Amino acid sequence: MNGFARKTLAGLLGAASMAVMIQCSPAAKEKYYEKVASLPTEATLDERVDIASRTVPTANQLAWQDLELTAFLHFGINTFTDREWGDGKEDPALFNPSELDAEQWVKTLKDAGFKLVILTAKHHDGFCLWPTQTTDHSVASSPWKDGKGDVVRELRDACDKYGMKLGIYLSPWDRNSPKYGDSEAYNDQFVAQLTELLTNYGKIDEVWFDGACGEGPNGKKQVYDWPRFRKVMEELQPEAVLAITGDDVRWVGNEGGVGRETEWSVTPLMPSIFPESEAYNDSLGINAMAKNIGDREMLANAKEVRWWPSEVDVSIRPGWFYHDSQQPKSLAHMADIYLSSVGRNSVLLLNIPPDRRGLIADADVARLKEFRQWIDANFSDDLVASADSASMSAALRPQSKVNAVVLSEDIRKGQRVETFVVEAWSDGAWNQVAEGTTIGNKRILMTDDDVVADSLRIRVTSTRNTPHVRPLKAYYVIKPDDLAAQETEFNVVGKSKADGAALVSDAGREAMVAGFIYEPSKGQVPVFRYVAEVSTDGIAWKRVKTTGEFGNVFNNPIPQRVVFASPVKARWLRIVSVDDEPKATGKLEILTVK
Protein backbone atom coordinates (compact mmCIF):
# COMPACT_ATOMS: atom_id res chain seq x y z
CA MET A 1 0.00 0.00 0.00
CA ASN A 2 1.51 3.38 -0.99
CA GLY A 3 1.73 6.37 1.34
CA PHE A 4 -1.27 8.11 -0.21
CA ALA A 5 -3.38 4.99 0.18
CA ARG A 6 -2.31 4.52 3.82
CA LYS A 7 -3.12 8.14 4.59
CA THR A 8 -6.54 7.86 2.95
CA LEU A 9 -7.40 4.60 4.73
CA ALA A 10 -6.31 6.03 8.07
CA GLY A 11 -8.52 9.04 7.50
CA LEU A 12 -11.40 6.79 6.57
CA LEU A 13 -11.08 4.73 9.73
CA GLY A 14 -10.79 7.80 11.89
CA ALA A 15 -13.88 9.41 10.40
CA ALA A 16 -16.07 6.33 10.40
CA SER A 17 -18.19 5.30 13.36
CA MET A 18 -17.01 1.72 13.42
CA ALA A 19 -19.40 -0.70 15.08
CA VAL A 20 -17.03 -3.62 15.34
CA MET A 21 -13.34 -4.44 15.06
CA ILE A 22 -12.31 -4.22 11.43
CA GLN A 23 -10.64 -7.32 10.08
CA CYS A 24 -7.85 -5.92 7.90
CA SER A 25 -5.59 -8.94 7.76
CA PRO A 26 -5.59 -10.66 4.33
CA ALA A 27 -5.86 -13.96 6.18
CA ALA A 28 -8.96 -12.93 8.14
CA LYS A 29 -12.08 -14.83 7.17
CA GLU A 30 -15.42 -13.15 7.63
CA LYS A 31 -18.53 -15.16 8.32
CA TYR A 32 -21.40 -14.26 6.01
CA TYR A 33 -25.14 -14.77 6.47
CA GLU A 34 -26.91 -15.60 3.25
CA LYS A 35 -30.22 -13.75 2.84
CA VAL A 36 -31.35 -13.84 6.51
CA ALA A 37 -29.51 -13.27 9.77
CA SER A 38 -30.87 -13.47 13.31
CA LEU A 39 -30.12 -10.67 15.74
CA PRO A 40 -29.83 -12.17 19.25
CA THR A 41 -31.90 -10.40 21.89
CA GLU A 42 -28.82 -9.86 24.04
CA ALA A 43 -26.72 -8.47 21.16
CA THR A 44 -25.44 -4.91 21.52
CA LEU A 45 -26.08 -2.35 18.77
CA ASP A 46 -22.49 -2.71 17.58
CA GLU A 47 -22.95 -6.47 17.31
CA ARG A 48 -26.22 -6.02 15.43
CA VAL A 49 -24.61 -3.64 12.96
CA ASP A 50 -21.78 -6.11 12.48
CA ILE A 51 -24.21 -8.93 11.66
CA ALA A 52 -26.13 -6.68 9.24
CA SER A 53 -22.86 -5.81 7.48
CA ARG A 54 -22.18 -9.48 6.83
CA THR A 55 -25.65 -10.33 5.49
CA VAL A 56 -25.34 -11.06 1.76
CA PRO A 57 -27.52 -11.97 -1.24
CA THR A 58 -28.18 -15.45 -2.55
CA ALA A 59 -26.81 -16.33 -5.98
CA ASN A 60 -30.30 -15.77 -7.43
CA GLN A 61 -30.60 -12.32 -5.83
CA LEU A 62 -27.11 -11.33 -6.95
CA ALA A 63 -27.87 -12.28 -10.56
CA TRP A 64 -31.15 -10.37 -10.37
CA GLN A 65 -29.54 -7.16 -9.05
CA ASP A 66 -27.06 -7.16 -11.94
CA LEU A 67 -29.92 -6.98 -14.47
CA GLU A 68 -30.54 -3.25 -13.77
CA LEU A 69 -33.25 -2.90 -16.47
CA THR A 70 -36.29 -5.20 -16.54
CA ALA A 71 -39.62 -4.74 -18.31
CA PHE A 72 -43.27 -5.24 -17.47
CA LEU A 73 -45.92 -6.08 -20.06
CA HIS A 74 -49.39 -5.27 -18.74
CA PHE A 75 -51.61 -6.90 -21.34
CA GLY A 76 -54.95 -8.67 -21.10
CA ILE A 77 -58.69 -8.13 -21.09
CA ASN A 78 -58.22 -4.62 -19.64
CA THR A 79 -56.41 -3.65 -22.84
CA PHE A 80 -59.72 -4.08 -24.66
CA THR A 81 -62.05 -2.56 -22.03
CA ASP A 82 -59.95 0.58 -21.42
CA ARG A 83 -59.77 -0.16 -17.71
CA GLU A 84 -57.02 -0.62 -15.15
CA TRP A 85 -58.78 -3.12 -12.88
CA GLY A 86 -61.30 -5.42 -14.54
CA ASP A 87 -64.15 -6.85 -12.48
CA GLY A 88 -63.94 -10.43 -13.77
CA LYS A 89 -67.23 -10.19 -15.61
CA GLU A 90 -65.70 -9.40 -19.00
CA ASP A 91 -66.64 -11.53 -21.99
CA PRO A 92 -63.53 -13.42 -23.20
CA ALA A 93 -64.70 -12.61 -26.73
CA LEU A 94 -63.39 -9.08 -26.17
CA PHE A 95 -59.81 -10.37 -26.26
CA ASN A 96 -58.87 -10.36 -29.93
CA PRO A 97 -55.58 -8.66 -30.79
CA SER A 98 -55.29 -8.27 -34.55
CA GLU A 99 -51.50 -8.30 -34.92
CA LEU A 100 -50.07 -9.78 -31.72
CA ASP A 101 -46.32 -10.12 -32.20
CA ALA A 102 -44.33 -11.18 -29.14
CA GLU A 103 -41.13 -10.94 -31.17
CA GLN A 104 -41.81 -7.22 -31.69
CA TRP A 105 -42.15 -6.85 -27.92
CA VAL A 106 -38.93 -8.66 -27.10
CA LYS A 107 -36.79 -7.19 -29.89
CA THR A 108 -37.92 -3.67 -28.92
CA LEU A 109 -37.00 -4.31 -25.30
CA LYS A 110 -33.72 -6.03 -26.18
CA ASP A 111 -32.67 -3.10 -28.36
CA ALA A 112 -33.50 -0.77 -25.45
CA GLY A 113 -31.17 -2.63 -23.09
CA PHE A 114 -33.67 -4.66 -21.06
CA LYS A 115 -32.63 -8.13 -19.93
CA LEU A 116 -35.83 -9.62 -18.45
CA VAL A 117 -39.52 -9.20 -19.27
CA ILE A 118 -42.47 -9.99 -16.98
CA LEU A 119 -45.91 -10.68 -18.45
CA THR A 120 -49.21 -10.25 -16.59
CA ALA A 121 -50.26 -13.84 -17.25
CA LYS A 122 -53.32 -13.19 -15.07
CA HIS A 123 -54.37 -9.84 -13.65
CA HIS A 124 -57.00 -9.17 -10.98
CA ASP A 125 -59.84 -9.82 -13.46
CA GLY A 126 -58.84 -13.49 -13.56
CA PHE A 127 -58.47 -13.65 -17.37
CA CYS A 128 -55.63 -16.04 -18.20
CA LEU A 129 -53.33 -15.42 -21.18
CA TRP A 130 -52.59 -19.12 -21.50
CA PRO A 131 -55.04 -22.04 -22.09
CA THR A 132 -55.23 -23.06 -18.45
CA GLN A 133 -57.06 -26.16 -17.29
CA THR A 134 -58.34 -24.31 -14.21
CA THR A 135 -60.95 -21.98 -15.75
CA ASP A 136 -62.75 -21.14 -18.99
CA HIS A 137 -61.93 -17.46 -18.40
CA SER A 138 -58.91 -17.52 -20.69
CA VAL A 139 -57.62 -17.10 -24.22
CA ALA A 140 -59.06 -20.53 -25.00
CA SER A 141 -62.53 -18.95 -24.87
CA SER A 142 -61.57 -15.99 -27.05
CA PRO A 143 -61.78 -15.60 -30.84
CA TRP A 144 -58.03 -14.89 -31.00
CA LYS A 145 -56.52 -17.67 -33.11
CA ASP A 146 -59.86 -19.49 -32.82
CA GLY A 147 -59.21 -20.16 -29.15
CA LYS A 148 -55.95 -21.95 -29.87
CA GLY A 149 -53.62 -19.11 -28.94
CA ASP A 150 -51.21 -18.91 -26.01
CA VAL A 151 -49.65 -15.52 -25.24
CA VAL A 152 -47.27 -16.98 -22.66
CA ARG A 153 -45.97 -19.53 -25.17
CA GLU A 154 -45.43 -16.90 -27.85
CA LEU A 155 -43.53 -14.72 -25.40
CA ARG A 156 -41.44 -17.69 -24.25
CA ASP A 157 -40.45 -18.46 -27.84
CA ALA A 158 -39.60 -14.82 -28.53
CA CYS A 159 -37.47 -14.63 -25.37
CA ASP A 160 -35.58 -17.75 -26.45
CA LYS A 161 -34.95 -16.26 -29.89
CA TYR A 162 -33.55 -12.98 -28.58
CA GLY A 163 -31.87 -14.18 -25.40
CA MET A 164 -34.28 -12.46 -23.01
CA LYS A 165 -35.09 -13.76 -19.53
CA LEU A 166 -38.78 -14.36 -18.75
CA GLY A 167 -40.76 -13.55 -15.65
CA ILE A 168 -44.39 -14.24 -14.75
CA TYR A 169 -46.92 -12.02 -12.95
CA LEU A 170 -49.79 -14.01 -11.46
CA SER A 171 -52.32 -12.03 -9.45
CA PRO A 172 -53.42 -13.76 -6.24
CA TRP A 173 -56.56 -11.60 -6.26
CA ASP A 174 -59.06 -13.08 -8.73
CA ARG A 175 -62.35 -11.27 -9.34
CA ASN A 176 -63.65 -13.95 -11.67
CA SER A 177 -63.07 -17.18 -9.78
CA PRO A 178 -66.13 -18.41 -7.86
CA LYS A 179 -63.70 -20.13 -5.50
CA TYR A 180 -62.12 -16.87 -4.36
CA GLY A 181 -63.01 -16.45 -0.69
CA ASP A 182 -63.19 -20.21 -0.15
CA SER A 183 -59.59 -20.18 0.94
CA GLU A 184 -58.64 -23.83 0.56
CA ALA A 185 -60.43 -24.33 -2.76
CA TYR A 186 -59.01 -21.13 -4.27
CA ASN A 187 -55.51 -21.88 -3.04
CA ASP A 188 -55.74 -25.21 -4.84
CA GLN A 189 -56.75 -23.40 -8.03
CA PHE A 190 -53.97 -20.83 -7.66
CA VAL A 191 -51.38 -23.55 -7.10
CA ALA A 192 -52.62 -25.34 -10.20
CA GLN A 193 -52.24 -22.16 -12.24
CA LEU A 194 -48.80 -21.51 -10.82
CA THR A 195 -47.78 -25.10 -11.53
CA GLU A 196 -48.87 -24.81 -15.17
CA LEU A 197 -46.87 -21.62 -15.67
CA LEU A 198 -43.75 -22.89 -13.93
CA THR A 199 -43.82 -26.30 -15.62
CA ASN A 200 -44.78 -25.69 -19.24
CA TYR A 201 -42.80 -22.61 -20.28
CA GLY A 202 -39.15 -23.30 -19.65
CA LYS A 203 -36.92 -21.34 -17.29
CA ILE A 204 -38.66 -18.58 -15.33
CA ASP A 205 -36.39 -16.01 -13.66
CA GLU A 206 -38.86 -13.91 -11.67
CA VAL A 207 -42.30 -14.65 -10.21
CA TRP A 208 -44.33 -11.57 -9.32
CA PHE A 209 -47.20 -11.82 -6.80
CA ASP A 210 -49.09 -8.54 -6.53
CA GLY A 211 -50.46 -7.62 -3.11
CA ALA A 212 -53.36 -5.56 -4.52
CA CYS A 213 -56.92 -6.28 -3.41
CA GLY A 214 -59.87 -3.92 -3.51
CA GLU A 215 -62.53 -6.12 -1.95
CA GLY A 216 -63.14 -3.62 0.84
CA PRO A 217 -64.34 -4.25 4.41
CA ASN A 218 -67.34 -6.26 3.25
CA GLY A 219 -65.53 -8.17 0.53
CA LYS A 220 -64.47 -11.78 0.27
CA LYS A 221 -61.99 -13.00 2.85
CA GLN A 222 -59.32 -15.06 1.15
CA VAL A 223 -56.44 -16.43 3.24
CA TYR A 224 -53.53 -17.12 0.91
CA ASP A 225 -51.29 -20.09 1.59
CA TRP A 226 -48.03 -18.22 0.98
CA PRO A 227 -45.73 -21.00 2.28
CA ARG A 228 -47.33 -23.43 -0.15
CA PHE A 229 -47.02 -20.98 -3.07
CA ARG A 230 -43.37 -20.44 -2.22
CA LYS A 231 -42.70 -24.18 -1.97
CA VAL A 232 -44.17 -24.76 -5.44
CA MET A 233 -41.99 -22.04 -6.89
CA GLU A 234 -38.82 -23.32 -5.22
CA GLU A 235 -39.47 -26.87 -6.37
CA LEU A 236 -40.32 -26.01 -9.97
CA GLN A 237 -38.10 -22.96 -10.60
CA PRO A 238 -35.34 -22.95 -7.96
CA GLU A 239 -33.36 -20.20 -9.71
CA ALA A 240 -36.25 -17.73 -9.86
CA VAL A 241 -36.69 -14.85 -7.45
CA LEU A 242 -40.06 -14.26 -5.80
CA ALA A 243 -40.96 -10.59 -5.98
CA ILE A 244 -43.12 -8.17 -4.00
CA THR A 245 -45.28 -10.55 -1.95
CA GLY A 246 -42.13 -12.60 -1.47
CA ASP A 247 -38.80 -12.43 0.31
CA ASP A 248 -36.36 -12.24 -2.63
CA VAL A 249 -37.27 -8.87 -4.18
CA ARG A 250 -38.92 -5.92 -2.41
CA TRP A 251 -41.35 -3.29 -3.72
CA VAL A 252 -39.66 0.09 -3.40
CA GLY A 253 -42.82 1.62 -1.88
CA ASN A 254 -44.12 3.77 -4.75
CA GLU A 255 -45.00 3.53 -8.42
CA GLY A 256 -43.39 6.83 -9.41
CA GLY A 257 -40.03 5.42 -10.48
CA VAL A 258 -38.10 6.76 -7.48
CA GLY A 259 -35.80 4.84 -5.15
CA ARG A 260 -34.78 6.16 -1.76
CA GLU A 261 -31.78 8.44 -1.30
CA THR A 262 -30.85 5.96 1.44
CA GLU A 263 -31.69 2.56 -0.07
CA TRP A 264 -30.60 -0.38 2.07
CA SER A 265 -30.73 -3.88 0.60
CA VAL A 266 -30.31 -5.17 4.17
CA THR A 267 -33.45 -4.39 6.16
CA PRO A 268 -35.35 -5.57 9.25
CA LEU A 269 -38.60 -5.17 7.29
CA MET A 270 -40.39 -8.52 7.24
CA PRO A 271 -42.09 -9.69 4.00
CA SER A 272 -45.87 -10.06 4.09
CA ILE A 273 -45.68 -13.77 3.23
CA PHE A 274 -44.89 -14.37 6.88
CA PRO A 275 -48.03 -14.38 9.10
CA GLU A 276 -46.40 -12.35 11.88
CA SER A 277 -45.11 -9.64 9.50
CA GLU A 278 -47.78 -7.00 10.13
CA ALA A 279 -47.44 -7.05 13.91
CA TYR A 280 -43.66 -7.27 13.73
CA ASN A 281 -43.28 -4.39 11.29
CA ASP A 282 -45.70 -2.27 13.34
CA SER A 283 -43.58 -2.90 16.42
CA LEU A 284 -40.60 -1.41 14.58
CA GLY A 285 -42.61 1.45 13.12
CA ILE A 286 -41.68 0.38 9.62
CA ASN A 287 -43.49 -0.45 6.36
CA ALA A 288 -42.70 -0.80 2.67
CA MET A 289 -43.21 2.92 2.08
CA ALA A 290 -41.06 4.14 4.99
CA LYS A 291 -38.44 6.75 4.14
CA ASN A 292 -35.65 4.69 5.68
CA ILE A 293 -35.87 0.94 6.21
CA GLY A 294 -32.43 -0.02 7.41
CA ASP A 295 -30.77 2.50 9.68
CA ARG A 296 -29.06 1.74 13.00
CA GLU A 297 -32.03 2.86 15.07
CA MET A 298 -34.18 0.16 13.45
CA LEU A 299 -31.49 -2.49 13.95
CA ALA A 300 -31.50 -1.76 17.69
CA ASN A 301 -34.92 -3.36 18.14
CA ALA A 302 -35.04 -5.86 15.28
CA LYS A 303 -34.90 -9.62 15.77
CA GLU A 304 -33.54 -10.31 12.28
CA VAL A 305 -32.35 -8.69 9.06
CA ARG A 306 -32.59 -9.95 5.52
CA TRP A 307 -31.12 -9.18 2.12
CA TRP A 308 -34.23 -7.89 0.37
CA PRO A 309 -33.28 -5.55 -2.50
CA SER A 310 -35.48 -2.90 -4.06
CA GLU A 311 -37.37 -3.09 -7.34
CA VAL A 312 -38.70 0.20 -8.73
CA ASP A 313 -41.84 -0.42 -10.79
CA VAL A 314 -43.23 2.40 -12.93
CA SER A 315 -45.13 2.65 -16.20
CA ILE A 316 -43.92 4.46 -19.29
CA ARG A 317 -47.49 5.83 -19.53
CA PRO A 318 -49.82 7.19 -16.82
CA GLY A 319 -51.69 3.89 -16.71
CA TRP A 320 -50.46 0.31 -16.47
CA PHE A 321 -52.59 -0.96 -19.35
CA TYR A 322 -52.70 0.66 -22.78
CA HIS A 323 -55.13 3.55 -23.29
CA ASP A 324 -55.42 5.52 -26.55
CA SER A 325 -55.79 8.74 -24.57
CA GLN A 326 -52.37 8.44 -22.94
CA GLN A 327 -48.85 9.18 -24.15
CA PRO A 328 -45.44 7.98 -22.94
CA LYS A 329 -43.38 9.95 -20.46
CA SER A 330 -40.90 12.46 -21.84
CA LEU A 331 -37.26 11.53 -22.30
CA ALA A 332 -36.39 13.95 -19.50
CA HIS A 333 -38.73 12.10 -17.15
CA MET A 334 -37.30 8.75 -18.23
CA ALA A 335 -33.78 9.99 -17.56
CA ASP A 336 -34.80 11.10 -14.06
CA ILE A 337 -36.35 7.67 -13.44
CA TYR A 338 -33.12 5.95 -14.48
CA LEU A 339 -31.01 8.10 -12.17
CA SER A 340 -33.49 7.61 -9.30
CA SER A 341 -33.82 3.84 -9.66
CA VAL A 342 -30.77 2.15 -11.17
CA GLY A 343 -28.81 5.07 -9.72
CA ARG A 344 -30.13 4.37 -6.22
CA ASN A 345 -29.30 0.71 -5.61
CA SER A 346 -32.43 -0.64 -7.30
CA VAL A 347 -33.53 -2.52 -10.38
CA LEU A 348 -35.86 -0.59 -12.69
CA LEU A 349 -39.01 -2.48 -13.73
CA LEU A 350 -40.48 -0.34 -16.52
CA ASN A 351 -43.96 -1.17 -17.78
CA ILE A 352 -44.55 -0.91 -21.54
CA PRO A 353 -48.16 -1.97 -22.27
CA PRO A 354 -48.93 -3.51 -25.68
CA ASP A 355 -51.92 -1.95 -27.48
CA ARG A 356 -55.10 -3.54 -28.83
CA ARG A 357 -53.26 -4.71 -31.92
CA GLY A 358 -50.95 -6.70 -29.66
CA LEU A 359 -47.96 -4.47 -30.46
CA ILE A 360 -45.90 -2.01 -28.46
CA ALA A 361 -47.14 1.35 -29.70
CA ASP A 362 -44.99 3.36 -32.09
CA ALA A 363 -44.66 6.25 -29.62
CA ASP A 364 -43.40 3.90 -26.93
CA VAL A 365 -40.94 2.24 -29.31
CA ALA A 366 -39.57 5.66 -30.22
CA ARG A 367 -39.26 6.70 -26.57
CA LEU A 368 -37.45 3.48 -25.64
CA LYS A 369 -35.02 4.03 -28.50
CA GLU A 370 -34.32 7.56 -27.27
CA PHE A 371 -33.92 6.25 -23.72
CA ARG A 372 -31.30 3.70 -24.80
CA GLN A 373 -29.45 6.31 -26.85
CA TRP A 374 -29.40 8.68 -23.86
CA ILE A 375 -27.96 6.00 -21.55
CA ASP A 376 -25.31 5.00 -24.10
CA ALA A 377 -24.35 8.58 -24.89
CA ASN A 378 -23.93 9.52 -21.22
CA PHE A 379 -22.56 6.38 -19.55
CA SER A 380 -20.23 4.88 -22.16
CA ASP A 381 -17.31 7.31 -21.86
CA ASP A 382 -15.70 6.82 -18.45
CA LEU A 383 -13.44 9.80 -17.75
CA VAL A 384 -11.31 7.85 -15.25
CA ALA A 385 -7.79 7.22 -16.55
CA SER A 386 -6.72 4.98 -13.66
CA ALA A 387 -8.25 3.99 -10.32
CA ASP A 388 -6.88 2.84 -6.97
CA SER A 389 -9.35 0.65 -5.11
CA ALA A 390 -7.43 0.74 -1.83
CA SER A 391 -7.54 4.53 -1.56
CA MET A 392 -10.88 4.83 -3.40
CA SER A 393 -9.29 7.46 -5.63
CA ALA A 394 -9.14 7.89 -9.40
CA ALA A 395 -7.01 9.91 -11.76
CA LEU A 396 -9.05 11.57 -14.48
CA ARG A 397 -8.09 12.48 -17.97
CA PRO A 398 -6.37 15.88 -17.79
CA GLN A 399 -8.77 18.68 -16.83
CA SER A 400 -11.87 16.54 -17.24
CA LYS A 401 -15.29 18.08 -16.71
CA VAL A 402 -17.39 15.78 -14.53
CA ASN A 403 -20.90 15.97 -13.06
CA ALA A 404 -21.66 12.31 -12.27
CA VAL A 405 -19.85 9.68 -10.22
CA VAL A 406 -20.85 6.00 -10.39
CA LEU A 407 -20.05 3.91 -7.32
CA SER A 408 -20.55 0.27 -6.45
CA GLU A 409 -19.93 -1.99 -3.48
CA ASP A 410 -18.97 -5.61 -3.84
CA ILE A 411 -22.26 -6.78 -2.39
CA ARG A 412 -21.02 -10.37 -2.27
CA LYS A 413 -19.44 -9.07 0.95
CA GLY A 414 -22.49 -7.13 2.07
CA GLN A 415 -23.71 -3.55 1.88
CA ARG A 416 -21.71 -1.43 4.32
CA VAL A 417 -21.26 2.23 3.42
CA GLU A 418 -23.59 4.49 5.43
CA THR A 419 -22.31 7.94 4.38
CA PHE A 420 -19.56 9.25 2.12
CA VAL A 421 -18.34 12.36 0.36
CA VAL A 422 -16.85 12.86 -3.11
CA GLU A 423 -13.83 15.12 -3.30
CA ALA A 424 -12.05 16.58 -6.33
CA TRP A 425 -8.38 17.55 -6.57
CA SER A 426 -8.18 21.00 -8.10
CA ASP A 427 -6.04 24.09 -7.48
CA GLY A 428 -3.75 22.05 -5.25
CA ALA A 429 -6.38 20.89 -2.75
CA TRP A 430 -9.12 18.34 -2.15
CA ASN A 431 -12.57 19.96 -2.30
CA GLN A 432 -15.89 18.31 -1.52
CA VAL A 433 -18.19 18.28 -4.55
CA ALA A 434 -20.95 15.85 -3.48
CA GLU A 435 -22.11 13.67 -0.61
CA GLY A 436 -24.31 10.64 -0.28
CA THR A 437 -25.54 7.95 2.08
CA THR A 438 -25.83 4.33 0.90
CA ILE A 439 -24.08 2.93 -2.17
CA GLY A 440 -25.05 -0.73 -2.55
CA ASN A 441 -24.95 -2.44 -5.93
CA LYS A 442 -24.85 0.84 -7.86
CA ARG A 443 -25.07 4.51 -6.99
CA ILE A 444 -25.11 7.35 -9.51
CA LEU A 445 -24.41 10.61 -7.71
CA MET A 446 -24.84 13.90 -9.58
CA THR A 447 -22.84 16.93 -8.48
CA ASP A 448 -24.61 20.27 -8.04
CA ASP A 449 -22.15 21.96 -10.40
CA ASP A 450 -19.79 20.86 -13.13
CA VAL A 451 -16.42 19.81 -11.70
CA VAL A 452 -13.14 20.34 -13.53
CA ALA A 453 -10.43 18.29 -11.81
CA ASP A 454 -7.45 15.99 -12.26
CA SER A 455 -8.51 13.42 -9.65
CA LEU A 456 -11.49 12.30 -7.60
CA ARG A 457 -11.68 10.32 -4.39
CA ILE A 458 -14.33 8.83 -2.17
CA ARG A 459 -14.03 9.41 1.54
CA VAL A 460 -16.29 7.12 3.55
CA THR A 461 -17.46 8.97 6.66
CA SER A 462 -19.53 6.19 8.22
CA THR A 463 -19.48 2.48 7.51
CA ARG A 464 -20.57 -0.88 8.87
CA ASN A 465 -17.33 -2.84 8.99
CA THR A 466 -14.67 -2.60 6.27
CA PRO A 467 -16.22 -1.19 3.09
CA HIS A 468 -15.61 -2.99 -0.21
CA VAL A 469 -16.04 -0.23 -2.79
CA ARG A 470 -15.22 -1.02 -6.40
CA PRO A 471 -13.21 1.45 -8.53
CA LEU A 472 -15.23 4.60 -9.12
CA LYS A 473 -16.28 5.82 -12.56
CA ALA A 474 -16.86 9.39 -13.65
CA TYR A 475 -18.96 10.86 -16.46
CA TYR A 476 -20.29 14.09 -17.83
CA VAL A 477 -24.04 13.56 -18.10
CA ILE A 478 -26.15 15.79 -20.32
CA LYS A 479 -29.73 15.60 -19.11
CA PRO A 480 -32.45 15.98 -21.73
CA ASP A 481 -34.26 19.28 -21.89
CA ASP A 482 -36.89 19.49 -19.20
CA LEU A 483 -39.88 18.44 -21.23
CA ALA A 484 -42.05 17.55 -18.25
CA ALA A 485 -44.30 20.54 -18.92
CA GLN A 486 -44.76 19.34 -22.50
CA GLU A 487 -45.82 15.82 -21.54
CA THR A 488 -49.38 17.00 -21.80
CA GLU A 489 -51.02 19.59 -23.97
CA PHE A 490 -53.31 20.56 -21.09
CA ASN A 491 -53.47 23.25 -18.44
CA VAL A 492 -54.17 22.15 -14.87
CA VAL A 493 -56.78 24.39 -13.22
CA GLY A 494 -59.57 24.37 -10.66
CA LYS A 495 -60.15 24.25 -6.93
CA SER A 496 -62.16 21.39 -5.50
CA LYS A 497 -64.61 20.90 -2.66
CA ALA A 498 -66.65 18.02 -1.32
CA ASP A 499 -70.39 17.92 -2.00
CA GLY A 500 -71.93 14.79 -0.52
CA ALA A 501 -70.46 11.83 -2.40
CA ALA A 502 -69.04 14.10 -5.09
CA LEU A 503 -65.77 15.95 -5.39
CA VAL A 504 -66.42 19.12 -7.41
CA SER A 505 -63.84 21.37 -9.12
CA ASP A 506 -64.41 24.82 -10.64
CA ALA A 507 -62.21 25.91 -13.56
CA GLY A 508 -63.23 29.54 -12.99
CA ARG A 509 -64.60 29.97 -16.50
CA GLU A 510 -65.83 27.89 -19.41
CA ALA A 511 -63.10 25.96 -21.20
CA MET A 512 -62.54 22.83 -23.24
CA VAL A 513 -62.30 20.25 -20.46
CA ALA A 514 -60.13 17.29 -21.46
CA GLY A 515 -60.05 15.33 -18.20
CA PHE A 516 -58.91 15.59 -14.60
CA ILE A 517 -56.33 14.72 -11.97
CA TYR A 518 -57.50 13.11 -8.74
CA GLU A 519 -55.08 13.22 -5.83
CA PRO A 520 -55.95 11.05 -2.80
CA SER A 521 -55.56 12.55 0.68
CA LYS A 522 -53.08 11.03 3.06
CA GLY A 523 -54.69 9.14 5.91
CA GLN A 524 -58.13 9.05 4.27
CA VAL A 525 -59.87 6.28 2.32
CA PRO A 526 -59.62 7.27 -1.36
CA VAL A 527 -62.30 7.23 -4.02
CA PHE A 528 -62.03 3.97 -5.95
CA ARG A 529 -65.04 3.65 -8.30
CA TYR A 530 -66.55 6.83 -9.74
CA VAL A 531 -68.44 8.47 -12.58
CA ALA A 532 -67.29 11.79 -14.07
CA GLU A 533 -69.66 14.62 -14.99
CA VAL A 534 -69.33 18.19 -16.29
CA SER A 535 -71.53 21.28 -16.12
CA THR A 536 -71.61 24.78 -17.56
CA ASP A 537 -73.70 26.26 -14.73
CA GLY A 538 -72.98 24.04 -11.75
CA ILE A 539 -76.61 22.86 -11.69
CA ALA A 540 -77.22 20.63 -14.72
CA TRP A 541 -74.66 17.84 -15.08
CA LYS A 542 -73.69 15.75 -18.11
CA ARG A 543 -71.93 12.43 -17.71
CA VAL A 544 -68.71 12.17 -19.73
CA LYS A 545 -67.29 8.97 -18.27
CA THR A 546 -69.22 6.01 -17.00
CA THR A 547 -68.00 4.03 -14.03
CA GLY A 548 -64.22 4.13 -13.81
CA GLU A 549 -61.69 2.92 -11.26
CA PHE A 550 -58.49 4.32 -9.86
CA GLY A 551 -56.39 1.17 -10.14
CA ASN A 552 -54.25 0.23 -7.14
CA VAL A 553 -55.04 3.52 -5.40
CA PHE A 554 -55.19 1.77 -2.01
CA ASN A 555 -51.62 0.46 -2.24
CA ASN A 556 -50.19 3.44 -4.11
CA PRO A 557 -52.11 6.65 -3.35
CA ILE A 558 -50.51 8.84 -6.01
CA PRO A 559 -52.27 11.38 -8.31
CA GLN A 560 -54.47 9.69 -10.91
CA ARG A 561 -54.69 11.33 -14.35
CA VAL A 562 -57.74 10.63 -16.54
CA VAL A 563 -58.14 12.00 -20.09
CA PHE A 564 -61.54 11.86 -21.83
CA ALA A 565 -61.97 10.44 -25.34
CA SER A 566 -62.60 13.99 -26.55
CA PRO A 567 -62.73 17.42 -24.82
CA VAL A 568 -66.07 18.91 -23.79
CA LYS A 569 -67.02 22.55 -23.14
CA ALA A 570 -67.71 23.13 -19.44
CA ARG A 571 -66.71 25.09 -16.34
CA TRP A 572 -67.32 22.60 -13.55
CA LEU A 573 -66.26 18.97 -13.28
CA ARG A 574 -67.11 16.43 -10.61
CA ILE A 575 -66.38 12.83 -9.84
CA VAL A 576 -69.13 11.04 -7.95
CA SER A 577 -68.13 8.09 -5.79
CA VAL A 578 -70.09 4.91 -6.54
CA ASP A 579 -68.23 2.82 -3.98
CA ASP A 580 -70.11 0.67 -1.49
CA GLU A 581 -69.35 3.39 1.03
CA PRO A 582 -69.35 6.63 -1.02
CA LYS A 583 -66.87 9.30 -0.05
CA ALA A 584 -65.52 12.60 -1.38
CA THR A 585 -61.94 12.73 -0.15
CA GLY A 586 -58.88 14.09 -1.87
CA LYS A 587 -58.27 16.88 -4.39
CA LEU A 588 -59.69 17.25 -7.91
CA GLU A 589 -58.09 19.37 -10.63
CA ILE A 590 -59.32 19.95 -14.19
CA LEU A 591 -57.33 19.43 -17.38
CA THR A 592 -58.19 22.02 -20.02
CA VAL A 593 -56.97 22.28 -23.60
CA LYS A 594 -54.26 24.93 -24.03
3D structure, described in words:
It contains twelve helices and 26 strands. With 594 residues, it is of the alpha/beta class. Helix 5 (102-111) runs parallel beside helix 6 and helix 7 packs parallel to helix 8.
Label this structure with key terms.
single chain, 594 residues, alpha/beta, eight-stranded parallel β-sheet, seven-stranded antiparallel β-sheet, 12 helices, 26 strands, disordered N terminus
Summarize the model shown.
The protein has 594 residues and is of the alpha/beta class. It has helices at residues 3-15, 45-53, 59-65, 78-81, 102-111, 151-162, 183-199, 226-236, 277-284, 296-299, 331-341, 362-379, and strands at 33-34, 36-38, 55-56, 69-73, 116-122, 165-170, 206-209, 241-244, 250-251, 266-267, 304-307, 310-315, 346-351, 384-388, 393-407, 417-426, 429-436, 443-463, 473-475, 490-493, 495-499, 502-519, 529-535, 542-549, 560-577, 587-593.
The pLDDT mean sits at: 90
Helix content: 10-25%
Task: Please mark out the parts with pLDDT under 50 across 5 or more consecutive residues, or reply none.
Answer: 1-27, 482-488
Query: Which sheet architecture does the biggest sheet show?
Result: 8 strands, parallel
Backbone CA Rg:
26 Å
Task: Itemize the secondary structure elements and their pairings.
Blueprint: H1 3-15, E1 33-34, E2 36-38, H2 45-53, E3 55-56, H3 59-65, E4 69-73, H4 78-81, H5 102-111, E5 116-122, H6 151-162, E6 165-170, H7 183-199, E7 206-209, H8 226-236, E8 241-244, E9 250-251, E10 266-267, H9 277-284, H10 296-299, E11 304-307, E12 310-315, H11 331-341, E13 346-351, H12 362-379, E14 384-388, E15 393-407, E16 417-426, E17 429-436, E18 443-463, E19 473-475, E20 490-493, E21 495-499, E22 502-519, E23 529-535, E24 542-549, E25 560-577, E26 587-593
Parallel strand pairs: 1-3, 4-5, 4-13, 5-6, 6-7, 7-8, 9-12, 12-13
Antiparallel strand pairs: 2-11, 10-11, 14-15, 15-18, 15-19, 16-17, 16-18, 20-26, 21-22, 22-25, 22-26, 23-24, 23-25
Helix pairs in contact: 5-6, 7-8
